[in-house]
Prior knowledge:
The protein is of the alpha+beta class. The protein has helices at 52-62, 81-97, and strands spanning 7-16, 34-40, 70-77, 101-107. The chain has a domain at 3-38 and 70-107: Alpha-Beta Plaits (2-Layer Sandwich), CATH 3.30.70. Helix content is 24%, strand content 28%.
Amino acid sequence: MEEEDTRRSMFVFYTISSNGSNFVLDNDIPNGWKWVGSGMTYHTYNTENWKGWLGQMYRNIFGPPTKYRSETQFMGLHETYDNMKHYLDKNFATLKETGVIKFYHIQETFQPVPV
């Protein structure tokens, strides 16, 4: 099996608290895993009550709001998937407990959870 066939993705969806700030995960990331990128999953405009063509345009471009506004993606070895999930769960639970983020969700595919 080629190396890319043994790799898996993992996404963490989260929303930063209003009093939260940027954060850095600890350096104990499991071997064979790397950060791939981060982005937004939520448009910044609440268009649900917008009328007319402008509201429709934004809904068409950005889609419906999602529960989690940000995401971070990791990729790594299939064999250490459970270790990585535990690592991320531990780190993001700490961020939630300290008020940096409101909530989070870890999954293998990029499908933001709707509101």
